[in-house]
Write a structure and sequence with these properties.
The complex is a heterodimer of chains A (286) and B (247). Chain A is of the alpha/beta class and 286 residues long. Helix content of chain A is 33%, strand content 27%. In chain A, a hairpin with a 2-residue loop joins strand 9 and strand 10. In chain A, helix 2 crosses helix 3. Among the domains of chain A are: 145 residues, P-loop containing nucleotide triphosphate hydrolases (Rossmann fold, 3-Layer(aba) Sandwich); 42 residues, no CATH class. Chain A is globular and about 70 Å long. Chain A has a 6-stranded mixed beta sheet, with helices on both faces. The radius of gyration of chain B is 19 Å and the shape is globular. Chain B contains 10 helices and no strands. Helix content of chain B is 79%, strand content 0%. Chain B starts with a helix and ends in a 5-residue tail after the last helix. Chain B has 247 residues and is mostly helical. Chain B has one domain. In chain B, helix 1 packs across helix 5, helix 3 runs antiparallel to helix 9 and helix 7 packs across helix 9. The chains are: A alpha/beta (286), B mainly alpha (247). At the A-B interface, helix 2 of A face helix 1 and helix 4 of B.
């Protein structure tokens, strides 16, 4: 295993009785990288996280986390990784400070780190507040703060912004990008393709337990950008979409020369449309 | 050292959760209050305002077995169920806490409470302490409390919500509490009671209340340790099968 490979999945499969939940999953995760597992509900995202973190045993294949086979890991692995699931709970009757301090004791993290993380997630002012009285976004920030309290090398996030309002989701995104800058590797599962495009260095499109595409969001979008088109807004507020043909290129050049173009955008596909092209299904239709 | 650290943290989390749960906090005081109330009530039937031995036996049986059953079955069971309901159990289990640390941390305070409150019940009942063999009472109390806490852990594994934990815990409580108490009225129940750990407790308190010397017999030891081992085995089998939380 390469020194800088924190996580390696080789030919992972998982079978539940007759149903094959994961088929031949392969991937690697490196420090400072955000890897997105993108797929609809039931695609196998959570199953993958559970296998990697030793909560579930795979049927075949090998999962290595921080150099150790996931079949051989014990509870001590959680001292080096952080896990946030879509329903990670908090102790609602305890204060924000107590919620973090308890876990600081488990991981033997100094008080100064608790204060630092509280500042990072902008909850310092609320440290004495009962956690149950926080807003939904603040609760999710607290969950994230707890997951990174011990400075894990890999952070697993299962639908971290699911059910959050756009403003809070943006706050969470900023936090994740800051953590990435600090060198933390992040394994993110989501069915939100905008989130994946914004955050991920690489994405794996998961469909019916299988990775149907893998690459950076840009690579994937360009790969499926076969019919090049441009969306143009002209001075007269007329919005048109033109395919890339010699005639249309001349037309666009002429409008630009006459300064009649308000704005122009290339119409490469989004991850959503890539997913649709590859699988014939939409991500959110599930 | 690291393990002790984690164990202490789990116990502290459990303590904070329990101390903020009104029903759990009130429970032990209700038992003590009930013993005190019945003592005053029953005293009016006795000569010189003193409790008749039969009344004292009933009072102690009720107080001690209720304390053991409610603290163990319900306090421990509902605390685990609450963690499942609020999705904090998985968070703990993915924070490097082992199953054993969670087990010990979960039962530590309820177990200590149960033993301490058993002694408080003795004191509140007003029994002449010269009639009580404190080491024997302590030993039986400790083992019975431990069994009830382990059964509470089993209740916690089976239950998915606090309501569910109560639904499982109450029938168990009725069996383990009422069979020994009603044993005085029915020969059949008395025989069954002899094979329950709470039955051993009531036999002991009966002797103390009647001013008789209580000699712990081989069958009593077998019942206490046998049920402790059986409850531990049932817990282990269930834990190995599904962990604390079934996927």
């Amino acid at each position: 295993m390469e020194q800088n490979v924190l996580l390696q999945l080789s030919h992972i499969s998982k079978r539940y009785k007759t149903e094959l939940a994961l088929k031949d999953i392969n991937m690697e995760l490196h420090p400072g990288e955000i890897l997105g597992f993108l797929g609809p509900s039931g695609a196998g995202k959570t199953t993958t996280i559970k296998i990697i973190t030793g909560q579930l045993r795979q049927t075949s294949g090998e999962a290595k986390i921080l150099g150790t086979d996931s079949a051989n890991i014990d509870a001590s692995i959680y001292e080096r990784i952080g896990v946030v699931s879509d329903n990670s709970g908090i102790y609602e009757k305890m204060t924000v400070w107590q919620n973090l301090n308890m876990f600081a004791k488990i991981w033997r993290v100094p008080r100064t780190r608790v204060e630092e993380v509280l500042r990072q997630v902008d909850l310092s002012e609320h440290s004495k507040k009962q956690a149950g009285k926080l807003s939904k976004g603040q609760k999710q920030r607290l969950v994230l703060a707890r997951a990174v309290l011990h400075k894990p090398r890999i952070l697993f996030l299962d639908e971290p912004t699911s059910g959050l309002d756009p403003t809070t989701a943006v706050e969470i995104h900023k936090m994740l990008l800051d953590l990435k800058e600090e060198g933390m590797a992040i394994f993110l599962t989501t069915h939100n393709m905008e989130e994946a495009t914004k955050l991920c260095d690489n994405v794996a499109l998961l469909y019916q337990g299988e990775i149907v595409e893998f690459g950076s969001p840009q690579e994937l979008c360009l790969k499926y950008n076969q019919d090049k088109r441009y969306q143009i807004l002209l001075d007269d507020r007329k919005e048109i979409i033109l395919e890339q043909t010699p005639e249309n290129i001349r037309k666009i050049a002429e409008w630009m020369e006459k300064d009649q173009v308000q704005c122009i955008h290339s119409c490469e596909p989004t991850l959503e449309s890539v997913f649709l092209q590859v699988t014939g299904k939409t991500l959110n239709a599930w | 050292m690291g393990n002790m650290n984690k164990l202490a943290a789990v116990a502290q989390i459990k303590w904070l959760c329990m101390s903020q749960n009104t029903a759990v906090v009130i429970g032990p005081f209700m038992v003590i209050g009930m013993v005190w109330g019945f003592k005053i009530l029953y005293s009016s039937f006795g000569p010189d305002g003193k409790l008749l031995p039969v009344m004292m036996a009933m009072l102690l049986n009720l107080g001690v077995t209720m304390n053991i059953c409610t603290n163990g079955f319900l306090m421990v069971g509902t605390a685990i169920a609450e963690e499942k309901e609020k999705h904090t159990l998985r968070v703990l289990m993915t924070s490097s806490i082992t199953g054993m640390q969670y087990f010990i941390g979960s039962i530590l305070y309820p177990f200590v409470f149960t033993v301490v409150i058993n002694f408080a019940i003795l004191w509140v009942s007003g029994i002449d302490m010269s009639q009580v063999s404190v080491p024997v009472f302590f030993l039986v109390s400790v083992i019975a409390s431990l069994i009830s806490c382990v059964i509470g852990m089993i209740v916690g594994i089976c239950a998915s919500t606090q309501m569910n934990a109560n639904l499982i815990g109450y029938p168990l409580m009725i069996v383990f509490m009422m069979v020994p108490i009603l044993g005085n009225m029915s020969e059949g129940l008395r025989r069954i009671s002899g094979f329950l750990f709470t039955g051993v407790v009531t036999q002991m308190t009966d002797c103390f209340a009647n001013g008789m010397e209580y000699k712990i017999e081989a069958l009593d030891i077998a019942v206490l340790f046998g049920e402790l081992i059986i409850s531990m085995l049932v817990f282990l089998v269930m834990y190995r099968k599904n962990g604390y939380e079934k996927d």
